[in-house]
Amino acid sequence: MRLYRHIGAIAPAPDGRAVTIGAFDGLHLGHQRILAAALDAARSRGIPAHVVSFEPMPGEVLSPHDPPARLTCFRERFELLEQAGIDEFFCASFRKLRRLPPQAFIEDLLVARLGARQVVVGHDFRFGFGRGGGLDDLRRGGDEHGFEVTVVPPVSLRGERISSTAIRAALAAGDLAKAREMLGRDFSLSGRVVRGRGLGKALGFPTANVNLKRCRAPIDGIFAVRVGGLGPELLDGVASVGTRPTVGGGPMLLEVLIFDFDRDVYGERITVHFIKRLREERHFDGLDALKAQIALDVGEARAALAS
Question: What is the pLDDT at residue 248?
């Protein structure tokens, strides 16, 4: 998949592109339906399937002091789009694109830069300065400039529309099963293993620590997990996502104890799949109490993964 980070770098497409636009945080089943429609349009026309998305996310620009929790960081989103078969990804600056009036969004971006032949969007798509453009404006632009518009209806789960917001709510409530259904896969976090303070090793439970690189994490607590990236198979473990209040607190960190594993993995990239939430993060009166609870968490995680 070809990545463009700046609008001026987008290569010409002599036969045009099938374009879809959105934040696509999480790449859930609703997003996957949109991507599938864009891919179908691209393949039927013999043109590239092109995704326009944003970094940072719109919510992080519009609400910098209280942004929505991130379901996927940039690399995770890139990898999911690539796995879906998308040909090109323009990761745009939302700060710049949001200033475009709707007409300029159509004429300067979709037509002049991308050569859109088909534009595929969700049912609630808005675009341009102040979200002033809607589906009717997009269709009129298509009639004027010669591109077709496909509007993909929402995807529902037991009567509830699947959305990034609904998945965030499920994760915040510890309902990993509901999040899994809406995503079509386990919720996961990935990143490189960094050196920590060595406290887990001192307690007899050495952990792999991962910086989350998000303004806000969508989950917290203690979880039964499976870990990918360290071999051909997923490895069982238990993980904490939190601020470590017993040892003085700090920024949000993902700490993973991989069962029956003894290898230096500093610098390696891992993906942690969250299977079951075991409990909330707590403050303990001393390291002995913390160590005893970790042993209980390990036993509960092993049982949850075995079942």
Answer: 62
Pick the CATH number of 186-306 from 2.40.30.30, 3.40.50.1970, 2.102.10.10, 2.40.50.140: 2.40.30.30
Poorest-pLDDT segment among 21-35, 125-139, 189-203? 189-203
Q: Do domains 2-157 and 186-306 have the same CATH topology?
A: no
Mean residue pLDDT across the chain: 93
Q: Which CATH number fits domain 2-157: 3.40.50.2000, 3.30.470.10, 3.40.462.20, 3.40.50.620?
A: 3.40.50.620
CA angle 192, 196, 202 (to 5 degrees): 130
d(CA 111, CA 141): 9
Q: Are 27 and 160 in contact (CB under 8 A)?
A: no
Confidence check: pLDDT of 202 > 70: no
144 sits in the region (left: phi over 0; alpha: psi -120 to 50; else beta) called alpha
